[in-house]
Specification:
Blueprint lengths: L9 H12 L3 H14 L4 E7 L5 E6 L6 H6 L27 H7 L2 E7 L6 E7 L2 E8 L4 E7 L6 H5 L4 H18 L4 E6 L2 E6 L4 H9 L7 E7 L4 E7 L11 E5 L2 E3 L2 H10 L12 E6 L5 E2 L10 E2 L2 H18 L55 E4 L8 H4 L12 H7 L6 H4 L8 E4 L3 E5 L4 E5 H18 L5 E11 L2 H9 L1 H6 L3 E4 L4 E8 L8 H15 L7 H13 L9 H12 L14 E4 L1 H7 L1
Parallel strand pairs: 1-7, 11-13
Antiparallel strand pairs: 1-2, 2-6, 3-4, 3-6, 4-5, 7-8, 9-10, 10-13, 11-12, 14-15, 16-17, 17-18, 18-19, 19-23, 20-22, 21-22
Length: 619
């Protein structure tokens, strides 16, 4: 039998190895920015086209490379950072393996121009798919410029796995943030498709955070400073009331390197545990300095995961440092006692005479009846409201499509699959004119049916109603806009402003008339002509943009679905008045007119049923 094991050609081996290091355009950005930092540069430019598919270029004013080094740097495992394996435990630079440039050159067109200050001329190297096309002298400025074009041109399968430009650009910006935050003493700029997104001058960490994430962080940040013989901890934490459900602004650095370490992240979140709601995540920007020999950074190809020699000890230091900062700044939730109590007193119309109330007496009242015959409101606000106009028999027709037992215990995805938008009985049923209902804490609506109770999650139902309304506005009939006599101004980060500019048409269809003033400011010339969608425009617009950016991966194929969901989430928690039969009937009519009334766009169940068997199981 002949031998079957053979060595792979170098080009093929490089392409395979590149898959570990270069997963998307953001991976190239990370490696090139870190190389520029290692070169001693003080000014670094990042130029991107089509979210990195067409071009990624990094220009710096670092020390540059010699003629021979410019060619050798593209060889695998060629590095100036270490000489022996022991050097791994004393690494002070970003890169050290010598894999990044070789991996990039294997899957793209690369042009490198570099020059040392003491040299009269520079060097240019061009490579196509790991094949060197030219290596010669050229005229260029001091420092290095490296351009990566047509990424994955020779690996079409990998290129097809790239997401939309919005998704890929989000990852590119994230890598830019990670380098720019910890190296705030350097100047950074980011250009996308010819437009400047960021221009960051050298500054301190706090100002760099504000420059990247916006002025909204100006009054949110409090310092964390802890110095010991084992570890030094510096950085900033945000107020507890600024916590979010997403880990969008959590940055941990160890020895100037961005890392993801679950235990240290847990240390920070535990310090906030009594100050923020469950499920929320605090924002923090933490720089930790430890002895390099206690950190193993050679764990993953991306060098983001690290191993610590004594992570439990560091857990204690980080937790204590954050606790100390929270205690020093007295960052506990506060009640504003300066506000006067507001009572919900009904307003008397001016044209209506004052009527002395009368006491009603019902001679047929029997306190031992299962269902009292009449029940009048006292006029006070209660967390529970009853309406017992008990004409239950009129619900019989409505129940015909709902009585199947298997609907009760199915998961949301199964329920959605069982609904046919064209023939579903639920949507086409007409609600009865009279039925008993019960509202608990303005969140759960109980409707008494023939032989069971239907419970409606009001918040999830409202999200479904608003989502379907927004989709209709985007696809068919735009929302009418109420023009403002004095337009409001919203302040955004450059990245948010760029996203808002690309979504101006969609915002207008949803009722928001945005006009760009400059790189970070928009005028809101009009708002939806709808009382349900009033509120603080700064908060609403920023939340929609942040939600859209976070959801881009989930809804990469449909921009309309994304922004419709983001808009719905902004208003779903608004209080819905369900105190009258008319209000409840209209609310249920809107819900059952939706495409899928049993499941919210966020995949939460809207309707649940209780019958006698369910109640018996509780006892």
């Amino acid at each position: 039998m002949s031998d079957i094991i053979k060595l792979l050609p170098e080009v093929v081996a490089n392409q395979i190895a590149a898959g570990e290091v270069i997963q998307r355009p953001a991976s190239v950005v990370k490696e090139l920015l870190e190389n520029s930092v290692d070169s001693g540069a003080t000014e670094i430019q990042l130029i991107v086209k089509d979210a990195g598919r067409t071009l990624i270029q990094v220009i710096d004013n670092g020390k540059g490379m010699s003629f021979n080094d410019a060619r050798l740097c593209f060889e695998r495992h060629a590095t100036s950072k270490l000489r022996t394996a022991d050097d791994l435990y004393h690494i002070q630079t970003k890169g050290f393996r010598g894999e990044a440039l070789a991996s990039i050159a294997a899957i793209a067109y690369v042009e490198l121009k570099t020059k040392q200050a003491e040299d009269a001329v520079g060097t240019v190297v061009t490579i196509e798919g790991a094949e060197v096309k030219s290596h010669e002298h050229c005229a260029t400025q001091d420092g290095t410029s490296i351009a990566v074009k047509n990424l994955f041109f020779n690996v079409p399968a990998r290129r097809n796995f790239l997401k939309s430009d919005n998704v890929e650009m989000t990852h590119v910006e994230e890598e830019f943030y990670r380098v720019a935050l910890i190296h705030h003493e350097l100047a950074f700029s980011l250009y996308h498709n010819g437009k400047m997104v960021y221009h960051l001058s050298p500054t301190n960490l706090k100002q760099r955070i504000i420059n990247i994430f916006g002025n909204s962080f100006k009054d949110k940040l409090y310092p964390v400073d802890q110095e010991t013989d084992i570890v030094n901890i510096h950085g900033f934490i945000a107020k507890p009331e600024n916590a979010k459900k997403k880990k969008s602004e959590q940055y941990m650095f160890i020895n100037n390197r961005y890392v993801r370490h679950p235990l240290l992240n847990y240390a920070v979140e535990q310090a906030y545990s009594q100050l923020i709601p469950q499920g929320y995540r605090p924002a923090y920007f933490m720089a930790i300095e430890v002895d390099p020999s206690n950190v193993d950074i050679n764990v993953s190809p991306t060098k983001v995961e690290v191993k610590l020699q004594d992570d439990k000890l560091l857990f204690g230091f980080v937790h204590a440092a954050v606790k100390k900062s929270l205690g020093t700044m007295a960052l506990s939730p506060q009640i504003d006692f300066d506000l006067d109590p507001i009572f919900e007193l009904p307003k008397k119309p001016d044209d209506r005479p004052i009527v002395i109330p009368t006491v009603e007496h019902n001679p047929n009242y029997n306190p031992f009846d299962t269902v009292p015959q009449t029940r009048q409101s006292s006029g006070k606000s209660h967390p529970y409201q009853w309406n017992e106009r008990a004409n239950v028999s009129t619900w019989n027709n409505f129940l015909e499509g709902l009585k199947t037992e298997h609907l009760r215990n199915q998961e949301p995805e199964q329920l959605e699959a069982n609904l046919n938008p064209q023939t579903g009985e639920i949507m086409k049923e007409e609600l009865p004119d009279d039925f008993p209902f019960f509202v608990m804490q303005d969140r759960y609506l109980f409707v008494m049916l023939h032989d069971r109770a239907m419970v409606v999650n009001v918040v999830a139902a409202r999200e479904r109603i608003l989502y379907d309304r927004n989709i209709k506005a985007l696809m068919e009939t735009p929302v009418s806009v109420q023009q403002s006599l004095f337009p409001s101004t919203v302040t955004l980060t450059p990245a948010q402003a760029d996203l808002a500019d690309s979504l101006r048409t969609e915002f207008l269809q949803l009722g928001y008339d945005l006009e760009k003033i400059d790189m970070t400011h928009f005028a809101v010339n009009g708002t939806p002509n709808n009382e349900e969608e009033e509120g603080d425009l700064q908060t609403i617009i920023v939340n929609i943009l942040d939600e859209f950016k976070s959801n881009t991966f989930l809804h990469r194929a449909d921009k309309y679905q994304n922004i419709a969901l983001c808009m719905a989430k902004q208003y779903k928690n608004r209080a819905v008045s369900l105190r009258t039969m008319e209000a409840v009937s209209e609310f249920l009519r809107q819900l059952f007119a939706c495409e899928c009334p049993t499941i919210s766009p966020s995949q939460k169940k809207i309707i649940h049923y209780f019958d006698a068997e369910n109640l018996e199981a509780l006892f």
